[in-house]
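Box 4.2: Ligand-aware structure prediction
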Amino acid sequence: MDNYTIAEEFELPSKGKVYSQKVNPIVKLKSMTTTQEMRRLSPSERPYKAMCDIIDECFVESPGISSYDMCLADYQYCLINLRIATYGTRYDIQTSCPYCGNTVYEKIDLGNMDVKYCDLQDLNSLFEFELPRTKKKIKINIQTPRIIDDVTVQNKALQKKSKGQAIDSSLLFNIVSLIETIDGHEYDPIQKEDFVRQLPMMDTNYIVKKVNKLVESFGVNMQIEHTCPTCGLDYNSTFRINGEFFGPNID
Ligand SMILES: [Zn+2]
């Protein structure tokens, strides 16, 4: 068969700076095949894993890291560029105006999304900080698709064990998975779990807020601005992946 592959080149929002290994931030992704789409649609215990395997296969050259271990900002941008390489930049979305309730249909250009690149100097205080109540010094990891899948799997296993009586433990597992060191020491997951369970909520909230700041500090701007054609007022919506993302309309 002739080569119908299209490749899309772009720079990772992290610029490869947040990883311990050497990562080439200029990456090229080629379009998805039907075989890969079938795998994407197959049910999985680890939904991010299936998508990341496809992204990894579509890298024209390996960036030096699996997309499963990339920070979320890089993963999301890879996903958007895989969509562009496979189906083009036009993306049909539907939002609801918060002022008049009108449903607004729009076409957005995925190639024009606003991307903020990482400036590592500003980030150090987000990776390492002192907790306000216990004064413990915490170092956190970046959140990756692998970590999110791990948390989902752990939480499901716990829910199953307690036959539906369990409280949602994703907050606990999330924090445990993100803590790298406490006062400069490494601990195993069981020890970290004990630590977090006893942690005053003021400190837990502090970690959650730091993680959120880190997530917001670089990557694709997920806020989309709209002007309602009916009432003329401006509003924002959060970018979401709908059925048009991997299966756009052909009209
Ligand atoms: Zn309106």
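In the box above, the bound molecule is zinc ion. The helical segments are 34-41, 47-58, 72-87, 120-127, 145-161, 170-178, 189-198, 201-217.
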